[in-house]
Amino acid sequence: MNIKDRMIMEEYREQRDLFVKLGETVHSMLRSIAKCAGIPVMSIEHRIKDEKSLEGKLYRKGDSYQSLDDITDILGARIICYFNDDVDKIGHLIEQAFTIDRENSSDKRALMKADSFGYLSLHYICSLPDGADYPDELCNKRFEIQIRTMLQHAWSDINHDLGYKSQFGVPRAVTREFARLAGLLEIADNEFVRVRDDMNRYTEETKRKIIENDADDVLIDMISLDEYMRSNGQMRDFIGRLAAIEKSEINEINPEAYIPQLKWLKIETIGDLARMLERNEELAYKLAERVLKGSELDILASNVALRFLCRAQLVSGGCDEKQAAEFIALSVNNKERAARQAKRLFKMYADIEQEGQDGMSGQI
Amino acid sequence: MTINKERNNDTLTLAIEGRLDTVTAPELEKVVNEETADIKELVLDMNALEYISSAGLRVLLAAQKKMNKQGSMKLKGVCDAVMEVFEMTGFADILVIE
What we know:
Chain A has 364 residues and is α/β, with parallel strands linked by helices.
């Protein structure tokens, strides 16, 4: 190691604590950027280059550096995203939040030749923004921020482990394998975006159909059922009636757990569910009233509407007690308890029917 | 109501005994707020819990929401009477019950 490199190493040891402080500040800013923009990220990480790694860099890069300030990755931070279009969104936010050293920043994606496949990542060389309330000694330090997808990260990490820093020594066949994998992962990254966009389109379309009462043929799944429970007028009225029994507050929860139960009852589409509600609302309400009235339970989950509707469908749809127990066991996971509940359900149904008949004869 | 606490690495087990109602729920709420900051799993042992009211359900709901963000929460040893309350209120679909 020459004198200049030894001086750089000495500077590094003196300033290491400052970089640790800077790392914490940058990390917290990145976390806040992703959170405020609502962009899901797999991880945000940062590291301070260790002594051995810096020595290696000085050895490899020869005369490139005159002082520690010339080395821009003593602090390196990285944001790993799920989707490749989020890389640009986060990049844009980073350009707004930090002072960017354009000359030394690079978009490895744009630098890649059109017919090559390899390392893809967006790199910024930054410093803390001027005019903000950061200590002066932190503001003049440059650092690197890398943004990439989790697949780009996997490729880069494995590539790095197998010899990134001595590219010239990697056998041609291995380089070719890595290029092929990079191409494969680039396609996979684009496909994930397409799947996400398709999913969002399906969700929007399903919501529109349900709101416009045009969802008769829409199959029941976690999206359609959730939207139906949240926005269908008749279902909301029913949930409201249940809440009124004990003046309960309603906690909206995803009704996904009811999909197997609805399938058991052969309720396959939103239309089937709407008709089940129409047929059974009164009976379901009476069952709920018997269970909840006087309980002083003034908090309910929105799913109770499905619970009582399914039970009303069981007893009014021709199931016997044994079949009802089989149905209840889908959610109760204890056959004896399911059998007890089925028995109680049929008893309640018989009482409701009897009361109905008594009421009718009273009127006559 | 009594709450016995047992910490094992990232797991906190709270064994709740007695009644979880308007009077006692704040006590459980306090324990959950004060002792779960750095844990990954919260286990509520309900073997000796005899009764739960709406106030108890609210504390469990808040604890579940908190633990969803930092790990997981599960209930074990739930007796029939308490289980019935979970089922009739729809809380059986919110809570993880072993």
